[in-house]
């Protein structure tokens, strides 16, 4: 069944809004202004991200899907015994379908910050897999996670696809992996997707596509911020800017002021010089050995890795 009414919100809405405002103000007032990438995902942002995943330049989604399809039988062998599938950042629950088909888990918990979008996706999954106990948990996965208390602890597999771990700075990624480890019993595991380093000619267009969908995705964060903060950012005043920072092995997304401008919000504001930027996202491209070392630091054991022919993307399985 699908427990659409069972969406768990960890905080009452008003305190969540208060925390979001404080977080946004803190970021906007730094010398290098920043907006956390989690604000990219309002309803419109989720739609735009779905469009990104279908762009010819955006290789991660289809490369990962191909690995999941090709290595499906081998993965099913390694992951057998998994009865409880927990997907973090589940979104439209598209990627977990293949695993549900091969593993036939009894329980599925999708966790995502976008509650309505998630609930609908979980309902569709429940329709497709009769007998699956499918639940939606609305939560910010960057914080402590409360799973339904009656969820069995044995046989858990945390599924974190899409290389979303790459959107966290290394220290935060380590902290997240540690929290994932805490969700698992001794027989649990993690199946995680990571995007590997590759030549610039493929990397940069994936974050600056010809149709301008990624630009719209990046600019849309300003409308979301306006709604949360009561600010007066104008999308036309800003330009999308994405580049690979090789020193940090990450794509950086910024919004660059097209002219000198002042943005106001209740109780304050900030002046931006022409070309000054707001940093909106990092997307780290981890060498495999470095990521495996991070997993070990987070408490995970022996890993199995599946990758594509070009070694652009990897699915890593780690034991608790
Ligand atoms: C969700 N995340 C893994 C995407 C990425 O590739 O870092 C977000 C994204 N940003 C721009 N395009 C896609």
Automatic annotation (TrEMBL):
Q: Which domain of life is it from?
A: Bacteria
> Known EC number(s)?
2.1.1.44
Alphabetical GO biological process terms: methylation
Alphabetical keyword list: Methyltransferase, Transferase
Domain called Histidine-specific methyltransferase SAM-dependent: residue spans: 21-318
GO MF term (any one): L-histidine N(alpha)-methyltransferase activity
Keyword Methyltransferase belongs to the record? yes
The answer, when asked if Transferase is one of the entry's keywords, is yes
NCBIfam families, per the entry: egtD_ergothio
Query: Under what name is this protein listed?
Result: L-histidine N(Alpha)-methyltransferase
């Amino acid at each position: 069944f699908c427990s659409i009414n069972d969406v768990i919100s960890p905080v009452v809405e008003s305190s969540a809004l208060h925390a979001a405002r404080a977080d946004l103000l803190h970021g906007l007032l730094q010398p290098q202004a920043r907006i956390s990438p989690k604000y990219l995902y309002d309803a419109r942002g989720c739609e735009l991200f779905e469009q990104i995943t279908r762009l010819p330049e955006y290789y991660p989604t289809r490369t990962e899907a191909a690995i999941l399809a090709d290595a499906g039988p081998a993965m099913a062998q390694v992951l057998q015994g998994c009865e409880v599938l927990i997907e973090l950042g589940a979104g439209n629950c598209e990627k977990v379908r293949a695993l549900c088909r091969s593993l036939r888990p009894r329980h599925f918990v999708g966790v995502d910050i976008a509650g309505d979008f998630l609930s609908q996706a979980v309902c569709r999954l429940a329709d497709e897999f009769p007998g699956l106990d499918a639940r939606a948990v609305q939560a910010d996965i960057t914080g402590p996670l409360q799973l339904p208390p009656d969820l069995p602890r044995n046989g858990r597999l945390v599924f974190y696809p899409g290389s979303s771990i790459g959107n966290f700075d290394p220290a935060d990624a380590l902290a997240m992996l540690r929290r994932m480890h805490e969700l698992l019993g001794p027989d649990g595991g993690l199946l995680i997707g990571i995007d590997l380093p590759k030549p610039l000619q493929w990397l940069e267009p994936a974050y600056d596509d010809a149709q301008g969908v990624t630009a719209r995705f990046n600019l849309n964060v300003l409308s979301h911020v306006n709604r949360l903060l009561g600010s007066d950012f104008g999308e036309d005043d800003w330009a999308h800017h994405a580049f690979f920072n090789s020193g940090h092995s990450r794509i950086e997304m910024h919004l660059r002021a097209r002219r000198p401008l002042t943005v106001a919000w209740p109780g304050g504001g900030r002046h931006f010089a022409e070309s000054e930027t707001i940093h909106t996202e990092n997307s780290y491209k981890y060498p495999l050995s470095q990521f495996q070392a991070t997993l070990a630091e987070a408490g995970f054991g022996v890993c199995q890795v599946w990758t594509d022919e070009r070694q652009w993307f990897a699915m890593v399985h780690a034991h608790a």
